[in-house]
Structure formats: structure tokens, C-alpha cells
Amino acid sequence: MDVDHYAVLGLPSGEEGSKLSEKEISKAYRAKALELHPDKRPDDPNAHANFQILKSSYEILKDEKARKLFDDLLRVKREQHRRQSERDSKRQKMMTDLEARERSAFAPDPAAKELAEEEKIAKKLKEEIARIRAMHAKKGAPTTFPPKKETGGVGKNSDGDPGSTMDKERMLKVSWEKIGEDYTAEKLREMFSKFGEVEDVVIRHNKKKKGSAVIVMSSKDAAVASTRSVLGDLSNPLLVLPLQPVSSVEMPAAEKSPEHNRLNNLVGAGYQAFEDSILKKLQKAGEKQKQ
Fold it and tell me: How far is CA 95 from CA 31, 86, 90, in A?
């Protein structure tokens, strides 16, 4: 039942075999018998059994009724094989689809992944922008200046407090024309630190063409040395003046002469003009040195 009798005779099986004539089957049998006859295979122990199988297959195919039943059997087997193949194919497809769905279920969502990546990059960018802003603010922004102590009058110490006078003697007023490269708090600190420790730098922002700043040195000697030595860039010189001259013994109000008061008023009124003339002289000197 499990033998393909067409294949035993060396003939094509299936639908093609069922169309063969008896003459073609007999011819194939004779050719195969000459090949498998035991006399031709003395050394083959299975020669006789193989020859008997050949004869049996020929007898079945030679009989019209037996051959028809055998063809039907082959047809049924082919149908079973085809259906089995289809089931296997469907089963394989189902398994493949199931595996794909499982991978999709456990795999991260592409849209969610892209959103997370975008948020991550945006967070890093914000941190970088904050770092850059902090760096620039540290370089260019003026530092805060400690509040001044309240005094009882303009230019005078309340209750004769000597500490306030000493603080002002360590302060320098620096001014310059706003031409070319401007001066920053960091640059001023670097210039004046050559003559002593700089405690603070306060740049005064105004809309005029002139820039100004207050420098607080660590000692009176450092302030005096800076006043005599710091000139700034030749293309944009600095005018450095003490915020308050070195302290001297004040005369009582009753002992001050009218001439002394007149000189004080003259100094206050002409301070700005004196400052402007010094700046212009320094600028002309810088231009001549360049030429």
C-alpha cells in the first residue's frame, strides 16, 4: 500500500502516470526487468526481493481494476498532502503573525520613543543655555555694591564715625568715554588688582556717552597707587580719581573762612569740567602715540 508502483517501474507518478498506456507500462517493465534480474546482480543479496517487487508492481498496473484503485489511492494521498501543506502553511503564518504581534506588544512605541528623545534633547539644550547665560552674566554683569551707611549730612560723617571716611578713602571713581571697546567689571578688576586686592567693582549704567564705575580697593595705599598708575587703553583712557581725598583734620564750621567755603564751591562746580579736560588730554596723547 505504501509503494508507488509507477516509481518502481521508473515511470512518472500522479496524474501523469494515470494517463500512461498499457504498452508504455509493459515496455518500462521489460527494461527494468533486464536491469534488476538476479542473474545480472549475482553480488546483490537483495536482487531477488527487488525483482519480486518489480513483478508485483507490474501485475497491479497491468490489471485495469487494480490500476484504477491504485490511481485513486494516489489521488487521495495527493489531496491529503496538499491539505497538510496548506495547514502547515497556515499554521506557520499564524505563528509568524503571533510572534510579530508579541514583538509589537513588547517593543517600545516609535512615537513614544521619539517624544522621549525629543524631551531629552530639549532638557539638555535648556541646561546648556542656562550654563551659557550664567557664564556671560559672571563675565559681564556688574557685581552688587554693598549699601552705603546712612550719614547725617552730605559729605559729612554722622556722629564723627571714622569708619565711613576710611571706606570712602578706599573708593575710586573711574570714568571714560564710550568710544571703541567698552570697559567691563571684569576688565576693570583685572587692571586694578595689580596694585592690590579689589573688593568690588560697580559700573554705573547711563545713556550718556561717558561710562563710569566705582572701584573699592582693599586698602587706602592700594587706592592711592591705583590712582597714580592706572591709565587704561590708550585708545580709550581712564580717568581715575579718589572718591574722597585722603582724610585730613576738618576745621570746625565756625573757624572756616569765607575763602575756604568759596574754594569748596568752586571744586564742586568745576569737578566735571576738570574731569572732561583730563579725558580729552589722555585721548589726544593716545592718538599721537598711535601715529
Answer: 49, 14, 8
